[in-house]
Amino acid sequence: MECGERGRNLHAKNEVPRGKPREKGAEFHGPRVHLIAMNPTLVALRCGLLLAGFGLASVLGAATARPPNVVVILSDDQGYADISFNPRHPQEVATPHLDALAREGVFFSQGYITGNVCSPTRAGLLTGRYQQRAGVYTAGEGGSGMALSEKIFPRFLKPAGYTSAAFGKWHLGVNLEQSPIARGFDEWYGFLGRGGHDYFDLAGNDADNGPIYRNGAPIKDQGYLTTRLADEAVAFIRRQKAQPFFVYLAFNAVHAPAQAPAEDIERIRRQFPDLPAARVTLMAMLRHLDLGVGRVVETLKQEGVWENTLVFFLTDNGGSRAMSADNTPLRGFKQQNYEGGIRTPFIVAWPGGFKGGRTIATPVSSLDILPTALEAARVVPPTDRPLDGRSLLPLLTGRTDRHVGTFYWSEGASGGWAVRSGDWKLVAQRGQTKSELFDLARDPAETKDLAASEPAKVAELTALYDAWIEQMADPLHGGSKRMGASPDGGAKKSKDAKRKARDEERAKQKAEK
Ligand SMILES: [Ca+2]
């Protein structure tokens, strides 16, 4: 049996069948995934335990004599088309550093995040499990913090000798008992807060923003926050390059408030005089995000650790309508379970681990990041609380084009839900009388609801969702985890119920601000 074969077979019935038609209308440059000979280094990595007694270091070679560094870069509310690697990006979008990372690594054109707002998706990414298993369905639940018994990323990597640092937005607890340090990070520069933070007030002058913290202590800093986050990540990499490290760099760009240095706004305004003002500011914010990613990659190269660093880049949820993001060609925005709310740019690079320069259309998820990192770090995944994702290394090394085939989204009682199985996706929205069914292979923009003509498929996907939600925990803030027997509710609700729903919706939006 080949190394890793057993784990793959365990998931076989949940895989996307071969030969399914690829999505149309969202084509990216670069060749599609194709099966390539597995990099011998990766074979060695996957078989590391077996090789341990035969001189592992000499087998792996200098670049991989130690487990790779892991860098997860998260942007915030960035549009699917607000990366110029997307060939359908608007002309004003220019992200040369993100594009370079995508070209050096692999771009997943169907990369999902596990929710449509900031906080829940962070809970999912860092625990490697659907956040609903921890009772997190809403931004309010994630924002107030999960139980400390929920093990997150750095604690998994610690036994393998990693030093971990978090930079930027946390949004998984508003007090220090829930801080990154309390949850296993060795270093932390950033803010607890809610969804956003002022980009220029880093001295804590505005109580609503909360302070910037270094480790456990509030500090008074200055500068432009996106730049400062990159500064701190760069300094950490320079300090830690001799030992394996994990960086979680969670830029709050390009989340509200709409703030960027005046000279950048003016430059883009002159370049695109007809562009709406909100979009001009967003492009200036995006420029700094892109520069920050570029500086991190450049630092990894300068310090000689680029070849052996596993880098992920993605966005925490779809582009925000309020910030004038562009999700072309996808439908919808942040706070929706249409593709525009949950599908994001998704890049993975590891020059010493697999061949870059490819776009892979197989659907993947942010839940796959932790299992991928653990496999690369040669850490055995937990068996008592299994992770929901699966390592991407078999896909990335070209050993397969099959992966997890079913993905779930749920906002609990206060919102909608969705499920994707193969190329079919069912979207149930609060306030609507029927679920909508889409064939994403033929209709990636979700323009044609096929629910009426495909009742068996609706029933099949509904049953999948019902079985999944049954396994999830009750919401942290109480109430039902189910939206209701049918997705409507609206027409039959009493005035009181409608008022309560409105209040909940407002609270939800406020929690995101
Ligand atoms: Ca967000």
Explain how this protein is built.
The chain has 513 residues and is α/β, with parallel strands linked by helices. 30% of the residues lie in helices and 14% in strands. It has helices spanning 5-10, 40-46, 48-51, 56-60, 96-104, 118-127, 139-144, 153-157, 225-240, 262-271, 277-302, 339-342, 369-376, 393-396, 455-471, 495-512; strands at residues 69-75, 106-108, 111-112, 163-169, 187-191, 212-214, 217-219, 245-250, 309-315, 343-344, 346-349, 358-360, 364-365, 406-410, 417-421, 424-428, 436-439. It has a ten-stranded mixed β-sheet with strand order 7-6-5-4-8-1-9-11-2-12, sandwiched between helices. The chain has a four-stranded antiparallel β-sheet with strand order 14-15-16-17, covered by helices on one side. The chain starts with a helix and ends with a helix. The model is unreliable at 1-27, 29-63 and 488-495 (pLDDT under 50). Bound molecules: calcium ion (CA). Residues 76-77, 118, 255, 316-317 line the site of calcium ion.
